[in-house]
Amino acid sequence: MHTVRISALVIGGIALLGALGGPAQAKAQQAATGAPVWGSIDRYLMADRDAEIALARSAAPSSIADRAEILVLGPHGFQTAVAGTNGFVCLVGRSWAAAADADYGNPTVRVPMCVNAPAARSYLPRVTRITDLAIAGYSVNQVSEAMGVAVARHELPPMEDGAMCYMMSKLGYGGPANPHWPSHLMFFYSKVDPASWGANQQGSPIIAVADSLEQLTQFVIPVDHWSDGTPAAQMPHPARP
């Protein structure tokens, strides 16, 4: 029996981008049918390509995003829309690559993210692999199992040193349950104990979750401003008094 892994980062009632999980038993039990388990891929595409490019760039400050490679989602997965020159890659994540909350699978979810070069080589392949599996019609359980197998077989690389991601957009949409995600940075490691960073401890600003199946630890660092420089609300921490 396969157990769906759930590694959502829930902070003050807001579920942050994390590894794939299973929000509902019915979805987790759906079988692959050759079409996305959440309906036609067309429901997840943005009709305005320029709008998707702009939304992707909003993940990071313009000094970074303006020279980054930009990916957009097409019928067959993510594709390069703009060539980059600084090693960063920005894209708009969809709900199948988000945390397991009430909006998992919602076609309206738009999560801008911008990864640096080490993360583009090591973390981004996981995002694109999940996307490809979802488009192919894999159920939540099947995607979760496939990702675990891919990591175990070294089909997906371990995290490179310095792999990180900007998630500082105030324009993204997490869905009706959690429409506004806090501004934050994410750092990715393979099999690192969150305690080594003092994460999730009383008074610590660092939140972390470790996913044993994907051998991935994700650290979240709150940021007090959005990518455009305007102030952002402070991210509440579950251990903060």
Can you describe what's shown?
The chain has one domain (9-222). It has helices spanning 25-28, 49-57, 62-65, 117-122, 124-135, 140-152, and strands at residues 9-11, 14-16, 69-74, 77-82, 89-93, 111-115, 164-167, 184-189, 207-211, 216-222. Mean pLDDT is 81; it is low at 1-36 and 237-241. The chain has 241 residues and is an alpha+beta fold. The radius of gyration is 17 Å and the shape is globular. The strands form two sheets. The protein has an eight-stranded mixed β-sheet, with helices on both faces. The chain has a two-stranded antiparallel sheet with strand order 1-2. β3 and β4 (77-82) form a beta hairpin. The relative contact order is 0.19.
Quick tags:
alpha+beta, disordered C terminus, eight-stranded mixed sheet, 241 residues, 10 strands, two-stranded antiparallel ribbon
